[in-house]
Task: inverse folding
């Protein structure tokens, strides 16, 4: 049986949950420039309105940054690696960080401004992401040294460090995509789930999905080998788009 057949055989309601960058949006050097291709957006829109199907996007981006890429109706969103989970139509509530967490994050922001001016930096409400993809193209040693240094400083400040391929994400509070997927799975009333993601930060969600349906790892030039032999593999982001299109067509 193909992966599509396996997916269609899962119990309904089926929760289709997807990482964004590298999974439905091709990786680009500057995360601000990343987009979800129009035909993928059309398929997501169709999936969101398919009966007995729930659609979720689970991303490290913050809500503003995700909103620049999609304004889909009727979908679940987990942003900031699960720091904020929103049901379809749900608006975010104001959130307060404890004084000491705010202070530690502010200290890290200062360090970034003084020491990582050549990195691409995302300043999120509760995290700072230091991306070195562009630096790595010309100076891989500098890129790795910067990642190590950022990690050391952040750890010293008592902040949580999430390691991606070319990014260190420094967070005031620790979350993970597996917990986010679990929350959406439970709140949505889904009976099975499919999740696809392309980075090590997706592994907890892939693991959760494989216990309650199917979890798939998306390969890329940066990560051409799957993290384990047993995981379901999708060749690239184009393969994800083709899979979603086929599922949407057959569920309709
Ligand atoms: Mg990704």
Result:
């Amino acid at each position: 049986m193909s992966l599509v057949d396996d997916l269609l055989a899962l119990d309904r309601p089926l929760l289709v949950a997807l990482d964004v960058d590298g999974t439905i949006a091709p990786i680009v050097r500057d995360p601000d420039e990343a987009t979800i291709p129009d035909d993928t957006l059309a398929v997501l829109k169709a999936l969101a309105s398919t009966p007995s199907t729930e659609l979720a996007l689970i991303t490290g981006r913050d809500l503003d940054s995700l909103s620049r890429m999609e304004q889909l109706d009727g979908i679940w969103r987990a942003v900031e690696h699960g720091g904020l989970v929103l049901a379809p139509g749900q608006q975010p509530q104001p959130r307060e960080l404890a004084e000491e967490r705010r202070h530690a994050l502010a200290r890290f922001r200062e360090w970034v401004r003084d020491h990582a001016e050549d990195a691409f930096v995302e300043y999120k409400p509760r995290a700072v992401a230091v991306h070195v993809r562009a630096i790595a193209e010309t100076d891989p040693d500098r890129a790795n040294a910067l990642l190590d240094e950022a990690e050391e400083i952040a750890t010293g400040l008592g902040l949580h460090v999430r390691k991606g391929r070319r990014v260190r994400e420094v967070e005031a509070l620790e979350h993970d995509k597996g917990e986010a997927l679990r929350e959406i799975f439970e709140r949505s009333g889904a009976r099975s789930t499919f999740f696809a993601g392309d980075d090590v930060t997706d592994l907890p969600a892939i693991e959760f999905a494989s216990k309650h349906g199917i979890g798939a790892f998306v390969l890329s030039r940066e990560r051409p080998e799957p993290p384990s032999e047993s995981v379901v593999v999708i060749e690239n982001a184009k393969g994800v788009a083709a899979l979603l299109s086929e599922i949407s067509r057959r569920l309709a």
Remarks:
- The longest strand covers residues 53-58.
- The longest helix spans residues 99-115.
